[in-house]
Amino acid sequence: MHPSRPFYGIAEIADALGLARQLVTVWRKRRSHGMPEPDAELASGPIWQAATVEPWIEQMRDRLGADTVPSASPELARRAARRMLRLAVLLLEDTPRAGPLARALHEARELLPQVAECAPDELGKALRELLAPVDGPAQDPASPDDQRSLRARVLGTVPIVSRVVELVTF
Asked: Are 27 and 113 in contact (CB under 8 A)?
């Protein structure tokens, strides 16, 4: 094996394995799958030297070739669709209430680790796209600017809700 780059971040590891960044992030946070500790932490995230992580990447490629990553269950897909629709409804109120909005946002974010562990098949990709607006820095549900921004992103996922429901219905 020859090094393809001197350093790796989460995105480069995910790319090398053909997996979603969220899944690699979950593995790192859970310290699972024997993932090595990063060589350094930057403001942008952890980094590994090629010599540290490439042997592990090769092991994971072999392992992933033998193991299949499970597809999202219809139950998880419907739960994600319901939670994002609930969030959209709350954001469409004349004056969105911070408490219910914060709970709905939290409930949608709870699904991120489960979705990250799903296979990168059509349903898995649709679920990651559906939950993308709630993945990232927390928004302040009481802030009108954050509400407007979140509303625009969440409403943009309505067509994805239809696709997710169609994928698990047929």
From this structure: no
Q: Clarify whether residues 87 and 62 are in a common domain.
A: no
Contact 74, 29 (CB under 8 A): no
For the chain, percent of residues with pLDDT exceeding 90: 59
Q: Residue 3 pLDDT > 80, yes or no?
A: no
CATH code of the domain in which 41 resides = 1.10.1660.10
Dmax over Cα atoms in the chain, in whole Å?
A: 59
Under DSSP, is residue 71 helix (H, G, I), strand (E, B) or coil?
A: coil
Q: Half-sphere exposure (CA, 13 Å, Cβ side) for 42? A: 8
Beta bridge partners of 7: 49
Q: Which residue has the tokens 């946002």?
A: 105
Bigger pLDDT: 2 vs 76: 76
- Which domain, by its residues, includes 114? 74-169
